[in-house]
Specification:
This protein has 10 helices and 8 strands. By secondary structure, it is of the alpha/beta class. The longest helix is centred in the C-terminal third of the chain and has 18 residues.
């Protein structure tokens, strides 16, 4: 493990997601401890997207912005909101020069699948339909996210393809949660890795799916056809249960004719990019921004 990251492992609180309400509070406390991002080079606005129910969003608009991404926070589909994602959404906007539309989707277990996917798709549709009002190019809208949010982004891309919905320029998938089956080598062997353990992952999938069987929109690794999807950037962490399902997904996209950039970050674990003092974390955030900037360039 990267020594700068390893020094923080003992400081992480143990969490198993058996009580999502308690864990949401801890998650918010961790996010609040992150150094505040610099938003001097952008405008930040809270809005509500009309839907059933309405969806809160926070829009980060860099000066001279280029393209946009509908961005979905991590937290296992159980934790997270606009405030916990603020440090990362603002940094992504600054690093990429893109408008970041951060989505406060509904959380499980109170709102299991497909609530979060419906919210993400509603925001994507709204952004495309109101592109002129928002000052966006409807042909330069991406979807992306971290962890569970990246899985929702991948599901959104599948749904948009199948329903001939809004055009998606790019998928920015950072350590996505894609496969509820947890049968890969990394899922079977990384059972007690920092931040994301097997028990925590199992609980998150259980809350997210509720009583529904998993399909490709909930667990995109289950999709049998990945053709016709937008180009993707997939980032993985070496010591992460999701690692192998993400690499397999990237390979399957490539084999389906989809252009993919895959980066496996050595010495890292799930969510370790949040440790901003580590040099490798700074590189991860910078590369997410650079990949998005390249994808949305004219």
């Amino acid at each position: 493990m990267d020594p700068e990251l390893e020094a923080f492992v003992a400081l992480f609180p143990r969490a198993d997601l058996t009580d999502p309400v308690v864990e949401r509070k801890r998650f918010a406390e961790l996010a609040a401890a992150v150094p505040a991002p610099d938003t001097s080079r952008m405008d930040v606005e809270d809005r509500t997207v009309p839907a059933d129910p309405d969806v809160p969003v926070r829009i980060y608009r860099p000066h001279r912005s280029q393209g946009a991404v509908v961005w979905l926070h991590g937290g296992g589909g159980v934790m997270g909101d606009l405030d916990t994602e603020h440090p990362w959404a603002a940094r992504l906007a600054d690093a990429s020069g893109a408008v970041v539309i951060s989505v406060e989707y509904r959380l499980a277990p109170e709102n299991p699948f497909p609530a979060a996917l419906d919210d993400a798709y509603a925001v994507l549709t709204w952004a495309a339909d109101h592109a002129a009002e928002l000052g966006l190019d409807p042909e330069r809208i991406a979807v992306g996210g971290h962890s569970a949010g990246a899985g929702i982004a991948a599901g959104t891309a599948l749904r948009a393809r199948d329903e001939r919905g809004p055009s998606i320029r790019f998928q920015l998938l950072n350590q996505p949660g894609l496969d509820d089956r947890q049968e890969t080598w990394s899922a079977r062997n990384f059972t007690d890795t920092p931040w994301l353990t097997r028990d925590k992952l199992t609980a998150a999938w259980g809350h997210y799916l509720g009583s529904r069987p998993a399909g490709p929109y909930a667990a995109p690794a289950r999709a049998t056809d990945l053709s016709g999807l937008p180009p993707a950037y997939v980032a993985t962490a070496e010591f992460c249960p999701n690692r192998d399902e993400d690499i397999v997904h990237a390979l399957r996209l490539l084999q389906s004719g989809v252009s993919v950039e895959l980066h496996q970050w050595p010495g890292t674990f799930h969510g370790s990019h949040a440790i901003l003092s580590a040099e490798i974390s700074q590189r991860q955030i910078a590369e997410l921004g650079a990949a998005l900037r390249r994808a949305l360039a004219e």
